[in-house]
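Tokens in:
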């Protein structure tokens, strides 16, 4: 995952467990967010992750940090949202078969 070099990764990358309501997934967001302002999901929904910078790319004036994001412990069965900046990636984890 890549972020602008001036972003603090742990502020702009969140893994959350949404509230599932029939066909909808809902997240409660605290405060107001805009370009460059971190999204702040409700703390109860946060899932602990580690964010590791792999490398920096780019030249003078603009750099991008490439990061690896991993959950701190195995994810239980359920639905999740990975938030990177203001982009949301929804996915599910199936139980053992």
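Residues out:
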């Amino acid at each position: 995952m890549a972020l602008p070099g001036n972003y603090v990764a742990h502020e702009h990358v969140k893994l959350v467990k949404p509230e599932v309501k029939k066909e909808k997934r809902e997240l409660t967001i605290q405060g107001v967010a805009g370009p460059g302002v971190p999204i702040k999901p409700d703390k109860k929904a946060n899932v602990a992750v580690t964010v590791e910078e792999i490398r920096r790319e780019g030249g003078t004036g603009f750099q991008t940090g490439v990061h690896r994001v991993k959950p701190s412990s195995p994810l239980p069965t359920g639905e999740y949202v990975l938030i990177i900046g203001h982009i949301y990636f929804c996915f599910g984890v199936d139980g053992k078969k």
